[in-house]
Model the fold of this input.
Amino acid sequence: MNLRDKLRGLLVRLYARRVEGHLDHAQVPKHIGVIMDGNRRWAKAAGSSTVDGHRAGAGKIEEFLGWCSETDVEVVTLWLLSTDNFDRPQEELVPLLGIIEDVVRTLAADGRWRVHHVGTPDLLPSGMQTVLKEAEETTAHVDGIVVNVAIGYGGRQEIADAVRSMLLDAKDRGTSMEDLADAVDTDMIGRHLYTSDQPDPDLVIRTSGEQRLSGFMLWQTAHSEYYFCDVFWPAFRKVDFLRAMRDYAVRHRRYGG
Done:
């Protein structure tokens, strides 16, 4: 690292401390959703392989959660694998699934996070289903940030699964379709979502410069604030996180208009 890079790094750290010092912890989001985008483009820019990009992105996760733990964030949802990702070439998908399994094992072994899977288990290989189940069981007692690992996740699929769950529940209770139709409302559907016992995301961060949700938590983000960052996920820094938090804190949240 040359002198210019060292000086730049020092200035960034000093700026991050300044932003952190002015952060209003009373305005910190309780639930942050993260669309971790840009692994492949980061790898291409670095002259590395796509798999290396996914590994670099995976390595950023615990660092990010550490930043969250320094605030009053209670829930973090990490979108690790979408339902659309299963259409990727096998030479990319198979290593990616292995990297994600390693991420889940690492989070569970850390001891600071309570791991919760959001997604459709039936879409996942049996080995990954086992890893997720074990991670949830071994961290169920942890009194720390709830980390939702969105794997095999799609927003439309979640809503479809919620409606299916609601119908099956009504059948088990012996509820007629007419009575169900009279009783169904947004709260009832919400109780059947993957995140039924959690607060909705207050803030959604998407990296890489893309400005769309791509189906991320379609139901839960109706009133969320969005922060779009140009930085690729593997290069996401604490100063970028603090900027997102500062941006959220100064917004006036309004519901319904």
